[in-house]
Specification:
Length: about 500
Amino acid sequence: MKKQGLDGFVEKAIEELNDREEEYKKARDVIKKELLEICSSEFEGIEVIGRIKRVDHLREKVIRKNYHIKYENAASFIDDLPDGIGIRIICAFNDDEQKIVQLLQNRVDDLQKNNIEIDTSNQPQLQKNGLPIYRMDGRINSDGRTIRFELQVKSQVHNLWGEMEHTLFYKNYDYIISSDIFSSFMLNIYDELAILDGEFMTLKRHLIKDIGDRALELRDIAARIISEKYESQIGTITNCSIDLREVYAVLADLFIGQSSDYRIILDRIQDLTKAINDSQALDNSEYNELEKKRVSVTHLSPRTKNLAQLIDENIKKGDVFWKILFLLFDRICKDESEYSRVLDKMAYKFIQMYEDVLDSIISDPEDMETYVDDVVYWTAKDINKISFFSLRYYLPEVKKCLNNKLCIIEAKCFDESLIEKNRDVITVYLYISLMISLKEPFSMNFLIKKYNGFLGMANDYDLRFTSDEIKIINTGFPEEFDSTAFKACFNIEEEQ
């Protein structure tokens, strides 16, 4: 009697499931399409697969769960079947599983537009084997009927492991192996796959590194090439070992330029390597005589004059870093020009490293060129570090700050007729902003130079500092400097 009741229930359940096959397939495809669109928007290599419950699995499930006893009829059982549709999101890496669940939580509105609901709470769940799994209950309203489905999120290795376990354990009940041995064996495989996932993740991070990071790595290679060629020669000249990484980094940037295209950088590194190999050895006497060189201003262009003279000032002071930088630049360029012309060429190379900030200006960039050059000169002079001109150190923040402030200035309806009238206020505004951005103290030399002009400054653009900048300004001036005129010009109130 019971056996007939069971058989009848299963037969009716199979019939009911077969009748709904097309409806389930339609719902499955809607779910797959929506989940693929959502996940692919933020992850690469996403695969979404789906299946309809197979009728040959239904009998075992009914018996195992006693559904023929719990339900009065087969239709109600099929209505409540939690995995009539099975959906699996397969992602690339283990770490992606949790991120995808979080993404589904954030995109609940998009899911609801397609009448899909997914319960993402209490994840991951713990399986009988003691391992976690992201397994969620879902519902979709299709043609007036609510259909339940089960959603799993698995990485490639977790999916592989799950398929192996399913094949070995659930299919081969007569497999001659104890449960403990089997569990140990499968857990060992799980651990090995986890290691494999970690290796692939490391490879992925390397392959998808930001273009800027790749460029910096190549620049580091160029700097090491320079170091390996000249380090021992420099040690002989200076009679000691000096950490000149900043010099080598600046040199690498000067020869590579601003490009972030690794192919262009590789070509320039190749040219740099050839130039280094063809260059003459450093000369001790030339190093010692360098401080006696004289600058001919007539050989300096108006735009490079300030920076060229700054380089010369540091060389005249006997700054080893600037002296080595000049000598190496001259050697690698194979420049046989006299001292002033080499300074001019080096200064122009420095200008080329930051002048792209003017590209953000919609109006004629030449209108702002003088301001940027003036501010960069004063900031470089006050910070007085060779690393100021390196893309590995100060220069990225310099360019970021200038780009931001130039856009603010232009947004204030910049008028060419007011350039001269507001020259000082623009220069001071950029200088102070840049020093704050670089977390450097303000220079008394610059402030004193500009002090007499503060009272007459015309801030026609109503240029203002941010609240955070104002906090630093209120505490950043040296005690001996009267900042009253400056604060009045920029409408800065004293902190209460």
